[in-house]
Amino acid sequence: MIEFLTSQFGVSAQFVVSVVLALVVIGAMQGGVAYCIYFERKISAWIQDRYGPNRVGPLGLLQPVADGVKFFFKEDVVPRHVDKVLFILAPGMIMFVSLIGFAAIPWGGQLQLGEKLVNIQVANPDIGLLYILGVASMGVYGVVIGGWASNSKYPFFGAIRATAQMISYEIPMGLCILVVVLTMGTLRLEDITQLQTGYWLGFIPQWNMFLHPLAFLILFICVLAEANRAPFDLSEAEQELVGGFHTEYSALKFGMFFLAEYGHMITSSALITVLFLGGWHLPWFSWTQPEATQWYAVVAKMGVISAKIVVFLFLMMWIRWTLPRFRFDQLMRLAWQRLIPVTLALFVLTVGLLYFGLHRSPVWALSGNAVIVVVMLVSAGTVGKEVTGRQPNLPRIQESPGAAALAGV
Amino acid sequence: MTPTTGHLLYLVFALGGVGVYLLLPKGRGSQVRAGAVLGGLALAALISVLATRIVVTNSTTAFFYVFSTIAMLGAVRVITHTKPVYSALYFVLVVISVAALLVLMQAEFLAIALIMVYAGAIMVTYLFVIMLAQQDTAPVCDRRSHEPFLAVLAGFVLMAAVAGRCGDLTTASGDTIAQASPTKATLVANVPESSDVGNTTAIGRAVMTRYIVAFEIAGVLLLVSMVGAIALAKKKLPTETVEEERTPIGQIGREVPPY
User: Which residues make Cβ contacts (< 8 Å) with residue A311, sequence separation at least 6?
Assistant: First the structure.
C-alpha cells in the first residue's frame, strides 16, 4: 500500500508512516487515558485495602466505557455567571495541548521499508525536545482560562495557584533537561535515544539515569508539579477549593479536564523515559537495539517504551495515594530555595564536565552528583531554617492560665 | 518620478489614519460613523491594492497568507478588545501564528523559542497580573485615548515606512512579497558555516561568536532589572525578631490547652 501511495501521489514513505502513527497514537491515547483512570482507582483501592471498581465487566475492566457513556449523557451545565466563550474554550485548549505533545516522541526506532529507513515517530524535527517543552508550557492556559472564566471564588484561587506553580517548576525542569541536552549534544529525541544504547563495563546500559541520577529525580518531581499531581495538586485541592479550577464544570467538559491530566502524565512519562531511561532501548536483547529495523523489532521497542511509561504512571499514582499534599508556601520554597539552586549547580557541573570532555564519563558525573548531594544535605542540616509560613513578629496569642498549669504538670 | 504602489499605499494609509483618528474614543462628541466609513474605505483600498499581488504557487505561500491573516486579525483584536484577558489571549494567538510563519521560513528554533518565551512564560505572567488586578468595569482613564493625534501620526509614519519598503520590494523584483521573502531565516543565512549544521547549532554559534557582546549585555540587563524589581518589591521588616520558645518535637500535640 505504501508503494502505491508513494508512486501515485508522490508522498514519501515517512509521511505515510507519520500519518498512520499519528492516528494510532491519538486513538491509543484516548483509550490509554481512560484506562489510566481505571488503574488509578484500582491502585488506590489496593493501597487502601478495598476492592475498587469490580461491577462492570470482568474485574471491572469495562468501567472506563461506562464512565465515558456517563460523561456523554450527563447534563452539561453552563452556569449563568460564567464568561461563556472562554468557559467553553478552556477544556478544548487543555485537551489539545495534552494530545499534540506526542508528535515528537520516538516510539519504536527505525523501520526498514524496502530500501528506506523510516522513523517510527510522527515528526523528528531539529528541535524535538524544545517542541515538547513549548507545548508543555502552553498547558497552563487551559487551567488558567477555565478558572478565570468560571467567574467564581474557588476556581479562581485554583487558577492562580496553578499559574504560580507551573511558572516556578518550569525553571528546574528546564535546567534538568538542559543537563541532558548538554550531555547528549542534540535536541532530537530519536538521537538522544540512540546515544544511550551503549554499555559501560560491558553490561551497564548507558542510560542517562546512571549518569545524572539527581537530574532524573528532580525532573520527576517537577513533572509531578507540572501535571498537577499529588503532592503538588494544590490547584484542585478538594479539601480547600471544592474542585479547584474545574469546580464549575460538568459532564464532558469536566471529563476533558480529567482526561487531559492523564494525557499530561503519559506525555511527561514518555519524555522522562526518552531522556533518562533510553526510550525503547532494553539492554541485552537484540530486538531492542538500534540496528534491528524489522517490523517485529519495532513492535518490541514499542512494547518496551510503553512498559517504561506504565512504570512511571504507577509511580505517580503510588505517590498520590501515599503522600499528603504540600502547603502552598512549602511548594514555592521547595522550587525556589531548594530545587533551583541544586539544578543550577548540576548545570554548572555539566558545563564543567563538557569543557574537559568528561561529560559522558560516569565516574566524573556521578562523583559530581555525590558532591552536590552532600553539600545540599549539609546546608539543609546546618542552615536550619524553619520550614513554615508563620511570620516571626506576630503578637503571641494569649494563652489561658490553665495551659500554663498543665504545662507545669 | 512615476507613482508606484508605495505612493498609492501612502495615500491609503493617510485615509486610514484619518478614519482611525475619528474612531478613537475621545470622550466627547464622537464621529464614529464617519470614521468607520473612512476606515472601511481605506481597508477596501488596501485589500484591492495588495490582493492583485497575492499569488499562491505552492502550499508554503498558501500557509503564509493563512497565518499572516490570522496574525493580523489577532493583532487588531489585541488592541481593540475591551477585556484585558481576551487581549492577552489574542496576543498568544498572534505569537503562535508568527511562530508558524517562522517555521515556514525554516527557522524552527526561533519559532519554538518565541512560543516558549512569549506564549509560555511572559503571557502567563501577564494573565496572572491581569486576573489579580482586573476590575469589573474599566476606569475612565482606560476608556479614553490620551493623545489621539500623536498616536495616529506615529502609527501612520510607521505604516508608511513599512509600505514604502513593500513598494520597493514589489517593484524592484516584480515578485510578490511572499515570494521575495527569504527561504532561510536571514539570521541563519548570514552565518557562513550554517549550510551543513542544523538551525539550532547555527544560531548558537552566531550568538556565541559574532553577537557575543550584545548577548552578554542583554543578559546583564535582565539581571539588573531582576535585582531592581526585587529591591523595589522587598518588604521592609523590622530588624529585631522576637525569639519564641518552641515546644520540643516530642511534646507537640501532647497537651491541649482547655478553653
Answer: none
- Cα dist. A56→A52, A62, A67, A336 in Å? 11, 5, 10, 46
Burial of B172 (0-12, 13-18, 19+ CB in 10 A): exposed
Distance from CA of A159 to the nearest CA of B (A): 9
CA distances from B174 to A351, B5, B168, B170 (A): 50, 12, 9, 5
**To the nearest whole angstrom, how far is the Cα of A163 from the nearest Cα of chain B?**
7
As a whole number of angstroms, the distance between CA A103 and CA A122 comes to 5
**Quick one: how far is CA A265 from the chain centroid?**
4
Q: Is B139 helix (H, G, I), strand (E, B) or coil?
A: coil
- Burial of residue A35, with CB atoms counted within 10 A of its CB: 0-12 exposed, 13-18 middle, 19 or more buried: middle
**Euclidean distance between the first and the last CA atom of chain A, given in angstroms as a whole number:** 87
User: What ipTM score was computed for the predicted complex, to two decimals?
Assistant: 0.80
Q: What is the DSSP letter of A100?
A: H
Nearest to A156 by CA among A168, A145, A164: A145
Q: Do B198 and A148 touch (CB under 8 A)?
A: no
Predicted local distance difference test score (pLDDT) of residue B225: 93
DSSP state letter for A230: T
Alpha helices (H) along A103-152:
128-138, 140-149
B255–A403 CB contact, under 8 Å? yes
| Cβ-contact A111, A296 below 8 angstroms | no
- What's the grid cell of residue A408? 507545669
Cell numbers linked to A202: 560491558
Contacts of B133 (CB under 8 A, 6+ apart): none
List of chain A residues with pLDDT < 50: none
Smallest CA–CA distance from B199 into chain A, residue:
A126
Q: Which residues does A22 contact at the CB level (< 8 Å), separation at least 6?
A: A103, A122
In chain B, count of helices (H) and strands (E)? Answer: 12, 0
Contact call for B120 and A126, based on CB within 8 A: no
**The C-alpha cell that represents B129 in the structure block:** 497580573
**Does the reported pTM lie above 0.90?**
no
Rg of chain A (C-alpha set): 24
Chain B residue with the nearest C-alpha to that of A407: B255
The Cα–Cα gap between B152 and B23 comes to 11
Distance between CA atoms of residues B87 and B127, nearest Å:
10
Contacts with A282 (C-beta within 8 Å, 6 or more apart), sequence order: A288, A304
* A363-391 pLDDT per residue, tens: 888 888 888 888 888 887 776 555 555 66
Percentage of chain B surpassing pLDDT 70? 68
